[in-house]
Write a structure and sequence with these properties.
The chain has about 425 residues and is mostly helical. It has 17 helices and no strands. The chain has a single domain, classed as Growth Hormone, Chain: A (Up-down Bundle).
Length: about 425
């Protein structure tokens, strides 16, 4: 039985170890997007800047191709050998990918080998993150009482938002303190070196974690089991996650680049949109998780997603019409608040739908299938739609379509809020 003292003890460890290390991994993965314009020029030179940028953004998305592979392999590893072992291994892999980016010569130095090294680094990082999300979220939801599971699990998304906040602040500092020549020469590499340098601290913190649940299952055929017995859950969870993935990667990661290119804000000012958005998402994620413990996961997800779909297009129109930094900051913070309410409970719900023996792998597979296409390539789709339609409002149309699609599974999901986590013998079956 978990006592109040036990709950307090695991909470302190979880908030430091899980949030810090998980945020660090996402920092290493997403800092690339903030320096994509520089990376485009150095590693993907082309006849025009749009093609160069598309190649750089496409490489950002390439890492997401490896996420489902990492979900299967690393998720199975975490289910077989424990959450803690899985999370430590993903940290080592993420550090290896960061080292490749930090020290890769440019196209001017080694030619076509340069972009190949960047692509290789993104593949390694994508593989690592594919297993990270399931292992860390499984650990969070498996500790403590069912009544606070949404709050605990919401720290998964909060740590992602915090990493984006730190990455955006780093981008602002470097962009405003260095001249363009220094930034292009060596300044953009500093965040990757930073992530590499403090990675061992994240590994150390994770090794201090205990595991209440018996999450080791060396004999389980995890991927086959997931598809055979939980195929409907995989489909429903993937569709549900589409809306959360698309809006997260557009609002938190792409909005600053969009504002710089199409709203004509200076680079330093544009990055403040990501600061505002990520700060808002970090603040409201625990609130969203707590509210989902009180009202239910599907209720909070459904209401916030409907409001978000209704607010997307008017927000884009307003930003375009005004192109005024304070107003754009307010819009970014408002949209990110809705992102927190629709995404944080969704991540917890995905973990709750699978039994303990396949929770890390099952949740990783669902999460990564949605994120790989609709999140990882959200920026690429947005740029492509703008180029195809000639309208800078095209990203809003993409988000509205993804949001509406992701509402379809909600009426058919059995909400596990507040109930004990399922195992292989007892499981709540989705309503059909």
């Amino acid at each position: 039985m978990t006592t109040v003292a036990d709950h307090s003890r695991w909470s302190r460890k979880a908030l430091v170890a899980i949030s810090f290390a998980n945020g660090l991994e996402f920092f290493d993965f997403t800092i690339y997007s903030f320096f994509a314009p520089i990376i485009a020029k150095l590693y993907f030179p082309a006849s025009d800047s749009m093609t160069s940028m598309l190649l750089a953004i496409g490489t950002f998305g390439v890492g997401f191709f490896m996420r489902p592979v990492g979900a299967v392999v690393m998720g199975a590893y975490a289910d077989r050998y424990g959450r803690r072992a899985g999370m430590s291994l993903t940290m080592w892999l993420m550090m290896a990918g960061s080292a490749l980016i930090a020290f890769s010569p440019t196209h001017a130095s080694i030619g076509v080998a340069a972009p190949l090294l960047i692509i290789a680094s993104r593949l390694v990082q994508g593989f690592a993150l594919g297993g990270e999300i399931g292992a860390s979220t499984a650990w969070l939801v498996e500790q403590g009482a069912p009544a606070t599971r949404g709050y605990r699990g919401s720290w998964q998304f909060m740590s992602q938002a915090l990493n984006t906040l730190v990455a955006a602040v780093v981008g602002v500092v470097l962009t405003t303190s260095l001249d363009s020549a220094s930034l292009a020469s060596w300044g953009w590499r500093l965040p990757f070196v930073f992530g590499l340098a403090i990675g061992p601290l994240g590994i150390y913190l994770r090794r201090q974690l205990s595991e209440e649940w018996s999450s080791r299952d060396p004999s389980a055929m995890v991927f086959g089991r997931t598809l055979r017995r939980y195929g409907l859950v995989v489909v429903q969870g993937t569709v549900l996650m589409i809306g959360a993935s698309a809006v997260t990667y557009i609002v938190l990661f792409y909005l600053s680049s969009y504002a710089e290119k199409y709203l004509h804000l200076p680079a330093g000012d544009a990055l403040w949109l990501s600061v505002a958005a990520s700060a808002s998402a970090a603040v409201f994620s625990p609130i969203a998780g707590h509210l989902s413990d009180r009202l239910g996961r599907t209720y909070v997800i459904g209401v916030s997603r409907i409001v978000l779909v209704a607010a997307i297009y008017p927000s884009w129109v307003l930003m375009r019409a005004a192109a005024y930094l304070p107003l754009s900051l307010a819009i970014a913070a408002f949209l990110a608040m809705l992102v927190a309410f629709t995404t944080a409970p969704c991540i917890v719900l995905l973990a709750e739908l699978f039994p303990v023996r396949i929770r890390a792998s099952g949740m990783s597979i669902v999460y990564c299938l949605a994120v790989s296409v609709f999140g990882g390539f959200a920026q690429f789709f947005a740029l492509g739609l703008i180029r195809w339609t000639g309208s800078i409002l095209a990203p809003a149309w993409y988000l509205v379509a993804c949001g509406l699609l992701s509402l379809l599974p909600l009426p058919f999901l059995d909400d596990p809020t507040g109930r004990p986590l399922v195992d292989d013998r007892v499981r709540s079956t989705p309503r059909s």
